[in-house]
Structure formats: C-alpha cells, structure tokens
C-alpha cells in the first residue's frame, strides 16, 4: 500500500463549523472527480497495526487542475478525537493519504444528472460540477439539491444556477421540502441520481426514489461494491 505524506498549505473556513484543508500534491498522487481517500494523522502507523482511530475516509473536494488536494469536513465543538486533532492542525503540518478511489465519477450517458446531498456531503459533488462546467460533453444537464438545517450553505460560488450552461443548484433547510423536491425530480424516469450523506440519508433517498420507479442502476452511491450491496442486496452476484 502506497502512503503519501504531504503538508497542509492552506486552511479555508467555509462556515463556522466547516473547514477545507488544502494539501500539497505528492509526486505520483492522482485522482479524479468523485474520489475519496483515507486521511491519516501522524502516528497512525507507529505500531504493529495501524491505529484506525487516527484515520478517516474523506472525499476530495477539488480537481487535479486546482493543484491542491482539498479535504472539506465539519468540525463541531464536541467532536471525536480524530476531528479534534484535525481541528488543531496548522499550515505546514503533515498528514498521510492512501487508498484513493472514485465510486462516483461523472457519467456521460446523455442523461440528466441529479446530485442529492446532505450538509457537507456537497463536498463530494463540487468536483463533479466543476468537471461538468469545464466539459459538458454527453451530459444533458445537472441539478443539485442539498439540505442543510444550519443554513450555512456551502460552495455557493460554484453551486449557483447557470441556466445557459444547464446547471441548477437548490438548497433547502427542511426535510419535508427536501423530499418533496426529490419526488419531483424522480419524475425523470431516465435520470441518473447521485446520493451522498449518512447511511440513514442514503436509505431514505433510495426508498423515496424507488417508490417513484427509479431503478437501482440509476442510483449512484459513494460506496464500494460490498458497501453498495447493503443498500441493494438484489445486485449481489451469485
């Protein structure tokens, strides 16, 4: 397993509880839109076995052409040991990256794409939107729907509607409003639906979409095959 040690070059305060850590790109480190990586704190591999409490699975919120690896996460006042350590890091401090993979690259199948997210889950979709805005080939249009009860909506500079580019962005702060909108979007029986959020959020969205006739193959999750199977057991191969 290749471990890339790298330094923080900037810390951006997106909202009072959300920060983006911009990391130097180590030589040989590559990724694409929709990628996640494992972000580890110093000391995670000091013993015989990795200290899993010092490692988290994180989405990369930037594209390679931005020349920094962005990690966007929420750090509350009361948080885990991992988030507490992350929140104390400064520019110049080192972290490790490994096991980078994309489960949700932008599909170019001449269909409408719907991005459904909760809170900071929007970070996973930021590079997909940038990729689309840079090259819209074989994507009919993109609509983003995000729910965040804090009302501190993220990335409003990018997630803003651009009708001329067939991109629309929508934020809501109430669960009822969110699922009303999901049901409306599901009227597109040929669309592709990407979902990012907690497992509970994924389950609720899958249930809502399925009730409207959306098929499992139209639903993209930021999960590897094994993780996806827990939401779509019918997809398990014999």
TrEMBL record:
InterPro entries: FAD-bd_FR_type, FNR_nucleotide-bd, Riboflavin_synthase-like_b-brl. PROSITE patterns: FAD_FR. Gene3D superfamilies: Nucleotide-binding domain of ferredoxin-NADP reductase (FNR) module, Translation factors. Residues 1-107 form the FAD-binding FR-type domain. GO terms for molecular function: dioxygenase activity. Keywords: Dioxygenase, Oxidoreductase. This is Bifunctional nitric oxide dioxygenase/dihydropteridine reductase 2. It comes from Bhargavaea cecembensis DSE10. The lineage of its organism: Bacteria, Bacillati, Bacillota, Bacilli, Bacillales.
């Amino acid at each position: 397993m290749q471990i890339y040690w790298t330094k923080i070059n900037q810390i951006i305060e997106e909202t009072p509880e959300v920060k983006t850590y911009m990391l130097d790109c180590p030589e040989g480190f590559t990724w694409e839109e929709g990628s996640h990586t494992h972000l580890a704190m110093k000391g995670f591999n000091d013993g015989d076995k990795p200290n899993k409490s010092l490692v988290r699975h994180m989405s990369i919120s930037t594209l390679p052409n931005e020349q920094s690896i962005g990690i966007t996460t929420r750090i509350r006042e009361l948080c885990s040991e991992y988030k507490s350590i992350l929140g104390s890091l400064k520019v110049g401090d080192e972290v490790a990256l490994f096991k980078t993979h994309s489960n949700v690259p932008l599909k170019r199948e001449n269909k409408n794409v719907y991005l459904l997210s909760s809170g900071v889950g929007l970070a996973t979709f930021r590079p997909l939107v940038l990729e689309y805005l840079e090259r819209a080939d074989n994507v009919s249009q993109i609509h983003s729907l995000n729910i965040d009860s804090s009302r501190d909506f993220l990335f409003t500079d990018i997630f803003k509607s651009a009708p001329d580019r067939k991109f629309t962005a929508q934020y809501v702060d109430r669960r009822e409003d969110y699922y009303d909108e999901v049901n409306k979007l599901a009227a597109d029986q040929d669309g592709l639906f990407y979902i990012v959020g907690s497992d509970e959020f994924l389950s609720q969205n899958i249930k809502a979409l399925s009730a409207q006739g959306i098929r499992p193959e139209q639903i993209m999750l930021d999960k590897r095959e094994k993780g996806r199977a827990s939401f779509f057991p019918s997809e398990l191969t014999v």
